[in-house]
Amino acid sequence: MRLNIYLAAALLLSGLANAETTMQPMMHQDSMPATGQAMQQPMAPMSAEDSRPLVKMTPETIALLRADMRHMMSAYATIFSQLADGKHEEAAKTIEENLGMTAMKTHPGMMKASQELPENVRMLGMNMHKSASELAASLKNNPKPAAIFTGMQQISAGCSACHMAYRVR
Ligand code: HEC
Predict the structure, then answer these.
(1) 146: CATH
(2) How far apart are CA 164 and CA 31, in angstroms?
């Protein structure tokens, strides 16, 4: 699956190139479903202990980014309801504008974060936005439900890859 190649590449980068962190996220097998195989397994309950490496951003950027994230979360629910109603064109628009490459250029927190984040973390964001834009484009060709599920899975895996790999505070 292409997704796994993206993730593997991003995670490899994060392990190799992250000067900010003291620990390599690839080593945290317990807290990070990095491989396709792990992602398909139900996860054990999360421990409250947070061993994710810290990525530094200004408090202002974190606050803006959190607002953007809440916005994405709510768009996510809207997308599922539009897809369930078979409104593919509307869903494509919501996906592109709220989660896709377009979103990256219009949301203030994401724009600021992309200037402050180390390259490896920025890549995780970029891959998630790319997956969303690909799904939005593919919806124009009236794809089968399985292909739509796969597209949504790729976006979700993109959200999760970043959340599982890093903390910002
Ligand atoms: C490039 C990394 C990255 C990606 C990709 C990402 N997030 Fe986040 N997300 C963050 C960071 C950083 C925070 C702030 C964490 C904190 O406040 O400690 C966050 C916080 C959140 C929050 C909590 C907001 C709040 O009010 O505290 C939600 C909800 C969220 N993300 C949803 C999503 C969804 C849904 C996606 C995918 C569509 C996604 N995220 C993709 C980095 C990311």
Answers:
(1) 1.20.120
(2) 7
Ligand 1 atom nearest to CA at 125? 1
Q: Which residues line ligand 1 (CB under 6 A)?
A: 62, 65-66, 69-70, 72-73, 76, 99, 121, 124-125, 128, 155, 158-159, 162-163, 167-169
Query: 95-136, pLDDT tens digit by residue?
Result: 999 999 999 999 999 999 999 999 999 999 999 999 999 999
Q: Distance between CA atoms of 138 and 145, rounded to whole angstroms?
A: 12
Whether the model clears a pTM of 0.90, i.e. scores above it, the answer is no
**Domain that includes residue 143, residue range:** 2-37+51-165
* Residue 43 is assigned to a structural domain of this protein: no
In angstroms, the CA 134 to CA 101 distance is 9
User: Around Cβ 149, how many Cβ atoms within 10 Å?
Assistant: 12
